[in-house]
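Q: Study each token:
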Amino acid sequence: MKTALQYHKEWQGKIETKLRADVSTKEALALAYTPGVAEACLAIEKDVEQSYKLTRRWNTVAVISDGTAVLGLGDIGPEASMPVMEGKAALFKAYGDVDAVPLCIRSKDVDEIVNTIALIAGSFGGVNLEDIAAPRCFEIEKKLKERCDIPIFHDDQHGTAIVTLAGILNALILVGKELDKVKIVISGAGASGAATAELLFNAGATDITMLNRSGIIQNTEKFEGLLGEIAPKTNKENRTGKYAEALENADIFIGLSAPNIITKEMIESMNKDAIVFAMANPTPEIMPDIAREGGARIVATGRSDFPNQINNLLAFPGIFRGAFDAGAKDITKPMHLAAAYAIAALVGTDLEENHIIPDATDKRVGKAVAEAVAKEWNKK
């Protein structure tokens, strides 16, 4: 059996350029290139919005990374992140019919990265930030939103949050609980953890406790970026300690942190019909069989070999497809919520404990998310 490395050697890249214009004759060249192309250039000079009609900008996203937080590999550098960015570009095309260009930046400086992206933003319809370490990722996204007039979306934050919320909404239906009445524990206070907490609050959650490596985050602690905005709203009971103390009488555990940090005994201390999303990859915070032995009724992971995979693929292609279709200049918090609700609704009557979320390769999802996102933007 061939290894993934062997396939990558054969592919020599997962994407390539495809021609849409004929350039095979003198007459065709005169239209697609000089002298005819000057007409398109002058039209855009008069009105830059024509760049969305006269070039492929309207359907093209830049997939950008500095290579500092790549999958479970960590800071491996921009060149080493390229196979992941190419893979992301392939998924954009396959599941959203969005053209994507992978760009890896040789810098860890926030202002250098922001300036680089802002200066090339006129070539793209949107920017998907990928695998950038926290807390710099928060600042980069915020500054880009201030400088750019195209959608900016950090998938590690918001894609994870959207799909997690979709799964939680359906899990709560099965256990007969309501989002505004459950106790939620989130392990991991990085980009995805902070964004997931924020989206859960926006959806109606009222009781969230977060943990980092030091233990339960206190609502008086000071943090940078999005976590700094979220922390004061958390830990209503002022709990101290680590996982055992946080999980006692909790209804939902969301793991976005590290492998094998949760025990069966901790799950046993949770409330009846506990919901466990153990999403550390490749090894979850607790394996599904152990979580179920501890009393968890519904278990999700980030892996494809277990039921209920929480996969960002369910979110990002449709989000950009919808943003592009609507001519959106931003991807807003209400658009995040609309995407989550659309993903959750697709499960429909097939909802059961081992099927709380659509399969990652379900081709219905991109269209449903795109329609929901575009509709939300058009309310503005």
Remarks:
- Strands lie at 60-65, 99-104, 126-129, 152-154, 183-187, 207-212, 215-216, 252-255, 274-278, 296-301.
- The chain is about 45% helix and 10% strand.
- The mean pLDDT is 96.
